[in-house]
């Protein structure tokens, strides 16, 4: 399985809402003592544990699919899971979905164009700004104080879900780990 966490490279984006997928990959890499197998040709930080791979594309969000297709093809991985931020869900919500539209998420749009839409999406709710014109600054902004209090718990819960998904179906994982929101 290839588990992809979406985000943007660089310290400017490190603690932003858009990088929550990277945060999950960092935690999974630590949990599994994953080995760094990064190659410049992968266009992303790549780690391996057992027969699974973790990927943090370093292409910036809009070109994430370029990295995903390279790792998927090189390692001949069939199953792909993409962990990403979702504006349409309140902070702390966790949802699972196979296929579907990109909902305006440029990272998903890029991946869809490279490998099709048939992959599992782990949608991590980050909430949304009051005004539509603030979307870019919101996703590229830091979590607020209340969210920060629960961020580690949210990331840990998502990692537990991914760990369960490695041995179980998406439906079973969703039944056990989907949440409406953390108590914030």
Encode the helix/strand succession as letters: EHEEEHEEHEHHH
CATH topology: Rossmann fold
CATH superfamily: Peptidyl-tRNA hydrolase
The profile of the biggest β sheet is:
7 strands, mixed
The percent range for helix content is 25-40%
Low-confidence stretches: none
Looking at the overall shape, the CATH architecture is 3-Layer(aba) Sandwich
Radius of gyration: 15 Å
Element layout with pairings:
Elements lengths: L1 E4 L14 H12 L3 E2 L7 E6 L2 E6 L6 H12 L4 E7 L7 E5 L7 H10 L4 E6 L9 H5 L5 H21 L4 H8 L7
Parallel strand pairs: 1-4, 1-5, 5-7
Antiparallel strand pairs: 2-3, 3-4, 6-7
Helix pairs in contact: 1-5, 2-3, 5-6
GO molecular function, one term: peptidyl-tRNA hydrolase activity
Keywords: Cytoplasm, Hydrolase, RNA-binding, tRNA-binding
Function: Catalyzes the release of premature peptidyl moieties from peptidyl-tRNA molecules trapped in stalled 50S ribosomal subunits, and thus maintains levels of free tRNAs and 50S ribosomes.
């Amino acid at each position: 399985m290839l588990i992809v966490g979406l985000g943007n490279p660089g310290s400017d984006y490190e603690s932003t809402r858009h990088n929550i997928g990277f945060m999950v990959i960092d935690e999974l890499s630590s949990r599994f003592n994953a080995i760094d197998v990064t190659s410049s040709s992968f266009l992303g930080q790549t780690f391996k544990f057992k027969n699974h791979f973790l990927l943090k594309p370093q292409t910036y969000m809009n070109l994430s699919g370029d990295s995903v297709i390279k790792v998927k093809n090189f390692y001949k991985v069939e199953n792909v899971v993409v962990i990403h931020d979702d504006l349409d869900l309140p902070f702390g919500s966790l949802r699972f979905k196979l296929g579907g539209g990109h909902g305006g998420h440029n990272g998903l749009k890029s991946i869809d164009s490279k490998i099709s839409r048939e992959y599992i999406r782990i949608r991590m709710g980050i909430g949304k700004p009051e005004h539509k014109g603030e979307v870019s600054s919101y996703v590229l902004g830091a979590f607020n104080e209340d969210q920060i209090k629960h961020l580690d718990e949210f990331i840990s819960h998502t990692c537990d879900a991914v760990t369960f998904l490695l041995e179980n179906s998406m439906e079973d994982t969703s039944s056990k780990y989907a949440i409406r929101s953390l108590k914030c």
